[in-house]
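User: two proteins, same treatment. go.

Assistant:
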Amino acid sequence: MAEVHASADVKRCTRCHVERSLVQFHRSRTGRLGRHSVCKNCHRERWSVASGYVSPSAQRRRIESAARKSSWRRECRKCGKLQPQSAFSRSKSGKLRTSCEPCREENRLGRHTPVEQKTCVGCAAVKPASEFYRRTDKRHPGKSYLASRCKACWVTLPCRTRARRIEDRRRAAARKGKGYRANPSAWKENQPSSDEKTLRLRAILIGSTIRAWQRFALSESAVEDRKRKNRLAYQRRYKLHRESEIRRSRDGKRIRRESLARAGLSELYLVAIRSSCDECEYCGRPIAGRAHVDHVIPLSQGGTSDPANLAVVCAECNLSKGTASIYVWAKAQPRHIQERVALFST
C-alpha cells in the first residue's frame, strides 16, 4: 500500500519506491489521495502494449480463437480429405491454399524425381524422357522438370517459343544455303547495290508519308463530321425548347384571358391598374419600368382574376414569386416584406 507522508502533494510509488508528486499518478476513485499506488512511468513499463503485456482477457480470447481455428476442417482438392486448417499454408495474398501441405510436398518431390517415361498431353503418347524439353523451376532455383509436351508437339504450338524459333532457323539455313557463312561470295553478289537501296528507302518513306497523310485526312473528316452532328443536335434541342416556351406562353395568355372573362374584366382593366400604382404592393419600393399585375393566389392553385386577388408589383417580386403562393414566397423574404404581405393579406 502506498505510504502517505505529511505533505499531501507527495506520494511513494509501491513499484519503484520513489516519492513523486500526485501529478505523476493516475487518478483513482478507490486509491489513497484519489490516486493509483503505481506511478505513470511504472504503469507504462509494466502494462502498456509496447512492453508486450497481454491482459488475461486477451490471452483467453487468443486461446479460444486458436482452439476454434484448430477445430475447423477443410477439404483438400488433391486428396479429397478433410484436413484441419493448420494443414493448409497461406499464399502471398494471405488466403489459404486449396491443397494441404502433405499433397504439396508430394507434388514437389514427384516433380523433381527423375523419370524414364512420360505421357505427352498433346499427342497422348508415352515417350522416353529424352523426347521432352527440360525446364527450370523458377520457384526452386537449381531444380528442373520435364515439359508437359514432347518436342514434336512443342514445335507445332501456335506461340513462337524459343525451341520453335531455333528449329525454323535451322530448317531455313538448310533449305536455302545462301547465308554468309555457307557461301560468302554468293551472299555478296546477291546483295542489292547502293542505288537499289536508295530507291527502296525512298519508296518506303513515300509510302509511309502517304499513309500518314491518309490517317490525318481521315481524322480531320471525322472531326468535321462530329462537329456537324453536334451542331445539328444543338439546333434540334433549341427548336424543341423554343417551341415548348412559345406553347407555355400561349397557354398562359389563354388561361389569363379566360380567367378575366369569368371575372367580367378585360385586358384594359389590367392596363389601368398598372398605370394607377407607382410602388410595389409587396416590397414597397418605387416601380422602375413596366409594372406587373400578379395574382396573389396563382391561377394554377385555384386563384381567380377578381380585383381582390390582383396586386400591382415590381418585376423583381413577380418573377421571384413565380407560381408560388404569396404566403409560401414571403417566408423566404426579408422581414419588412413579410410584414407588408401580412397586412396585404388581411
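Protein 2:
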Amino acid sequence: MATPDPPTFPGAPAGGGIVLLTDMQHQDTARMRAAELARDGWTVQVVHGPFDADAHALAALVTARRSLPGSGPRVALGLGPDAGLASRLAGSVSVGWAAVVEFHGRILHATLRPERPAQPLDLFTGLACPWLGHFAEADAEVPNSHVAVLAEKLSGLPASTLLFTYPGLDAAGVGADACAWARTRTFLGHIRAAAG
C-alpha cells in the first residue's frame, strides 16, 4: 500500500503543489528532486509505493492531493514503472490535475489481473491534462517496443503531450538525468504560468 511522507516539502503558498509518487528503488532520488522543486516554489508531497493495485494508487493520489496546502496548479509526478503508471491515473480522471509527469512509467502489462484490470496504455484515452514522459532506451521493464506503441497512441490524442527517450540510459539513469529534470522544471514552469 502506498504511504505518504509525513512532512511535505514546503514551497510558496500560491506556488502550486506536486504529488510525487515514487517506487521503492527511487526514494533517495525522489527526496532530492522534491527539495529542488520546493526551491522552485512548489509544495511537494512524496508518496512511496508499492503501487500494487490501480484502486490503491488512485486513492493515494487523491489523499495526497487533498493534503497539499496553499493554492495553484496541482501536478502528479511519477518516478518509476509503477509510480509512473499511478501518476497517469491522475490524468485520466477529472479531479483537477493541471498536468502529469512520469519517468519510465509502465506502458503494457504482460498479463492483466483483478487489481490491474486494464493495460496502462489505455489510460491515455482519457488523458485530460498536459503530459510529459521520460523513458530510458536501456530500460528492461519498459522496453523500446512499448515506448514506440505509446508514441503512436499519443499522436492521436487531443491533450498536449511530450515524450522523450534517453539513449544509453537505464531506468535509474533517466530518473537522475539532468536533462530530463531540466525539461521537467521547464514544463512545470509553463504549467504554473498557464494557471495564472
